[in-house]
Amino acid sequence: MVKFYSTTYDYDYGFSAVTLAYFLRYPNPYSRHVASTDTISRHFDPETQRLTTVRLHVKRSRIPAPVLKLLPKATLGANEDGSTQSFILEKSVVDVKQGWMHTDSRNLDWNNVLSVIERQTYRRPTAGVGANEEQRTDVDVSVTLKSRIGEQIRKRRQRWGQQATATSVMGNPEKEIVEDEPVQPGWFNSWTSGAIRSAVETISLQRTEKSQPKAQKGMSVVLARLRNGGLEGVLEGMRADREVQL
């Protein structure tokens, strides 16, 4: 089963300011877990007037205790205290002329445990709805969480079933049909893979519901710094946040 999260909100700032703040949002007081951000590529298309950027974020986090009880630390790449780091690939496309920005962020590791895809759309309000709309940007957020625990086992059993069917149809008695290996006793026996997947997705959804409001607050801090002190104010705030991290 797949879990979904979605929300909508707006910022009382113009589209240009919000898109600039998006690229300057790390670090901020609500995202000190972000260790680094690197730009992999950036391309401006003169025909479409669109800017495409690909970045890599490295985030420090602590795996929730309930997840640690379900899965071995080695599976998650976590330390003894549950701390770990993750790599997030972010792609964004900005169309200043039409007034929209689409972003797509997804984790590069832990995919065998949980895949998280977050998509955001920033839009300039429709023209003609009011003079104050120039100082507002609408945001749509959707997050898809899918656990992949047990998929390799299912795929392997499907291959075995296909091999067995093909052998039966072809009538080849010399080819031995591979049977399912018995499940070894251990931590996995007390839970089915489906139950574990559902539990991991539910815990991750709860964490997403808590983290999204913080992300919104973090952007608001960066926007306030931009309004009050310009780019210099944002950079000074970033420097102060890095010192707190250290």
Automatic annotation (TrEMBL):
**GO cellular component terms given for this protein:** mitochondrial intermembrane space
List the Pfam families hit by this protein, alphabetically: PRELI
The PRELI/MSF1 domain, residue ranges: 2-184
InterPro entries referenced in this protein's UniProt entry, alphabetically: PRELI/MSF1_dom, Slowmo/Ups
Which protein is depicted?
A: PRELI/MSF1 domain-containing protein
Organism, as annotated: Zymoseptoria tritici (strain ST99CH_3D7)
